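Contributing new complexes? Match this layout with iron/sulfur cluster.
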Amino acid sequence: NRPPILVSACLAGYHCKYNGGSNLVPEIKELVTRRQAIPVCPEKLGGLSIPRPPAEIQGGDGFDVLEGRARVVDKEGRDVTAAFLQGARATAELARALGTRVAILKERSPSCGIRAIYNGTFSGCTRTGCGVTAALLLRQGLQLFSEETWKE
Ligand code: SF4
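Output block (do not edit by hand):
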């Protein structure tokens, strides 16, 4: 029996996005329906509400947040770093408990982004780098794909 993969819950159609919406990709939802994937929303696990103000990493990427060199701030100026770290740790713990080796995560999210994240200016501009949860999962040795690359 192969261990389940983890997927960003919003990709599986859960309405956990900051604005209360989802990022449904029907084939990813299908993986959950077939019990091959477990949906997880790090920001919800971190205790953040739905809806919530959008947040971006300022001063680096997810690895820098893990090292205490960067922080996560929401659009209202609130420092939400602790919630993002808590959500990342809970997700990493779940991956460990399930024996998960692979995850499909939502690109550009400050939690789930893999190759790119918004650059901290709330202007829609992105930079190279990954989100906080993605960084911790990479450190834990998981192979990460986004909704844009998982079929490769
Ligand atoms: Fe989706 Fe990840 Fe954001 Fe949750 S934290 S809404 S799973 S991108």
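Reviewers usually confirm one structural detail per submission. For this one: The chain has a mean pLDDT of 98.
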